Automatic annotation (TrEMBL):
A molecular function (GO) term: DNA-binding transcription factor activity
Gene3D superfamilies: Periplasmic binding protein-like II, Winged helix-like DNA-binding domain superfamily/Winged helix DNA-binding domain
Species of the source: Paraburkholderia diazotrophica
Name of this chain's protein: Transcriptional regulator, LysR family
InterPro entries tied to this protein: LTTR, LysR_HTH_N, LysR_subst-bd, WH-like_DNA-bd_sf, WH_DNA-bd_sf
Keyword Transmembrane helix on entry: no
Family the UniProt entry places it in: Belongs to the LysR transcriptional regulatory family.
Span of domain HTH lysR-type: 5-62
Keyword field: DNA-binding, Transcription, Transcription regulation
Signal peptide: none
Domain of life: Bacteria
Amino acid sequence: MHPEFDVDLLRTFVAVVEAGSFTKAAVSVHRSQAAVSMQIKRLERMLGTTLFARDTRNLSLTRPGNTLLEYARRVIDLHEEAWSAIVRPEVTGRAVLGAPDDYVSSLLSPVLRRFSNLYPHVEIEIVCAQSTALAPMLADNKIDLAFVTRDRKLRGEFVRSEPMVWVGASADTPVLNVSPLPVGLYEPGCVARANTLAALDRARVRYRAAYSSASLSGLVATVDAGLSVIALARCSVPPRLAILGAEQGLPTIEPLDIVVARSAKSDRPTCDYLAAQMVQDLSVRAPAREPREARRIV
């Protein structure tokens, strides 16, 4: 007789695939990295095959892993739909959610997928913009909810504290030896920029604001070209780039507090349930990611 699939094991497996690492998956399933690793090993023993091809930098699915992924998602979806059909009330309507594009892709994708399974009749419109641009839209009721970095204008319900990290094209990118250090920054007025500049000033690092952009892709382009280092929310760091830190003489930066803020007209079930889903799924403190070895700035 074949052993029965444990839905909890399948959830962890899908979380690892979606996060691209055991460490990030541990955050989303509210477990330690060791516990996630043990669950994957248990699933592999149950199936008698290897699901992930591992090396020092990459985590990819084997052929059996790719096959399982499709079925695992279907099993999880059916499980949530069945539970919702019995327990949750029928909710219909529309909600407009605003968030920076990097938060949408790195944090909100699994939340939106789960919410859609639970409330299939709710229409969600997503507005991608920086937190500084979303604040006035929220005040004018142009969006219902905002998943944003907290500042004086956007208080909201606290969800998580996301570390900020330094990012370079590689661990030994030549730009580290340039003085003053060329730094790419987000647009004036945003918390990420203020935190970055405050950290550099406290540490008395010689730098120049070489590039400025309200777009994550714009800043990443300067790093890809080897023209600057930048500071990003850790969840937003593209896998191809290197995380830098104290070993390169770069200072620790204050983390970003992420909140769910609501407009005055968001007092309705569609918005209530969507806000609750974001808080429930993402209200954890992410574990620190170890920087790769790199040379110190001199």
